[in-house]
Amino acid sequence: MARTDHDTWDPATGVGMTATFGAVVRAVATNKGLLDDPFAELLVRAADVHYFTQMVENELYSDDGANSVTAGLIAVLGAYTRFLDDYLADAGRAGIRQVVLLGSGLDTRPYRLWWPHGTTVYELDQPSVIDFKTDVLVALGAELTASRRAIGVDLRQDWLAALYRVGFDAAQPTVWIAENLLVGYLPPDGQDRLLRDVTVASAPGSRFAADHIPTWNPLQLEAGRGFVDRWRQFGLDIDLAELIYQGEYRHVPANLADRGWQTVEFKVADLFATIGMANRWRGGRKGDAITPAYVTATR
Ligand code: SAM
């Protein structure tokens, strides 16, 4: 099953909706004190999707059984953002000054995190997502905390050439982040090419972190359909089959290992433990089965 193309972005439909939902997650996590993203709620408001605004204002997701699954998803995604923020800080302490955020969505790391002097953050996403975010942040007068190069590009195509064009230096170590991207948004061969290109552009000392779903299992499909059905009731025009590709994916850690990376794999419970919030994960076995797996890698 192949997903349809998504050249135009709408904050309430398709893949664009997933970028908006990422901002919802960071807004909720900020309100709970888990993260500090002062721009997330403002981006959600600018996207102007009533259901998402309500999620942030009223924690709409937490008032019944189906919604508690949404609450669980928000908690997992927020914890992963927190984990990655720490991972990036650690890479900075190790001397890495080049950061690439693949499928950066409405994340605002070049504005909201502290970066060592001389850090350049490259953000890659669909042109319309990059433009929307940049316009909103400029209008807000948000100040950059690193040098930012934002590239509107299709990650199924030759994004590496676009990265080189704006000054990326493959001779320097890089920290790469693919957050909520390798979970079906790229087709299997596109995901494979992405990992190949990341490797080609990674000097020794580079690091990589991603969450990943090898191939959606029946429980994940059931949970995914549950979200989509519920969100459609609230007027969001989304269809799971249009959102994600469902093919046979190569296991991301094995793929990276075959390309010469040293990998560490972990699960959602480890994720919460690593950020010092072990008691916040109450998903149990079903939770484990529907959440992504995680990998970090070094070269
Ligand atoms: N990393 C962000 C976060 O965690 O909030 C966004 C995650 S969102 C689930 C997936 C992102 O991948 C969206 O912003 C979407 O536009 C982007 N994306 C999906 N397919 C893409 C493609 N072929 N080219 C460029 N970006 C793509």
From TrEMBL:
GO terms for molecular function: methyltransferase activity. The keyword Cell division does not apply. Exhibits S-adenosyl-L-methionine-dependent methyltransferase activity. PANTHER family: S-ADENOSYL-L-METHIONINE-DEPENDENT METHYLTRANSFERASE YKTD-RELATED, S-ADENOSYL-L-METHIONINE-DEPENDENT METHYLTRANSFERASES SUPERFAMILY PROTEIN. Its EC number is 2.1.1.-. Pfam families: LCM. The keyword Transport does not apply. InterPro entries: Ppm1/Ppm2/Tcmp, SAM-dependent_MTases_sf, SAM_mthyl_Trfase_ML2640-like. This is S-adenosyl-L-methionine-dependent methyltransferase. It comes from the Bacteria. Keywords: Methyltransferase, S-adenosyl-L-methionine, Transferase. GO terms for biological process: methylation. Belongs to the UPF0677 family.
